[in-house]
Amino acid sequence: MLDCFQIARTSCWWLIAQAPVGPAVAVAKTSSAQNDSFLSIVFSGGILGIGIMLALIGLSLITVYLIVDQALTLRRKDILPDDFAEAIRQMLIQGRLKEADQLCREKPSPLAFIIASGIAEVEFGWPAVEKALEDTTAEQSARMYRKVEYLSVLGNLAPMLGLLGTVSGMIVAFRQVALSQGAAGAGDLAQGIYSALVTTVAGLIIAIPAMGAFAIYRNRIDQLIAETAYAALHAFAPIRRRLPGSNPPRVAPARPS
CB 3.0-4.6 Å disulfide test: which of 44, 105, 143, 170 passes with 195? Predict the structure, then answer.
């Protein structure tokens, strides 16, 4: 009976001594995980992961540049200068075509380019003027869209590049498990997976603002081009009827009495 009591007491003391070991190890691992710096997490994907992260950093810098550049370029005062269309309209009413063309050259803007193209075709009649206005408006619209479309490309390219880094990182992680013949634990596998997922997160961080900015700037360009086309037609309205080839106003038929 005494031997059984001694055995039980010895077992209890052994369990108490062993109990803190598990939490201590977990706390140590947790603290070591918390001590990982931001750069160590970002560049934890090996050589291939580091290369992809550097490419994503380059794409992020290009995205920031394009967003800031278009914010400074797509301003209404630069596309549609104040009172410019009205000044051209008054000159066309007075027949001062050369002065109107000179004003367009002195104050370049998308609206000025469109009006100048119409002035150059005045002597060929209204159909030629209208065709020149339409062609130049389409040209200016394409020019304004050219840089904005790069944001759409970046918004689609960044997640694909991040996914490439994730897939390649997971291949490496599972390869290490296979080479160890199952000796690698779940912690080792989890570390490889979270290192691989970093590139996907970076790609999404780049893609979300890029696609949002693309949508905003695209709508902005559509609005500015529509206003520019209307301002150009409004400037030519006084001389439209005097140019050859313009359609005469339709007269409503008289009602039978």
Answer: 44
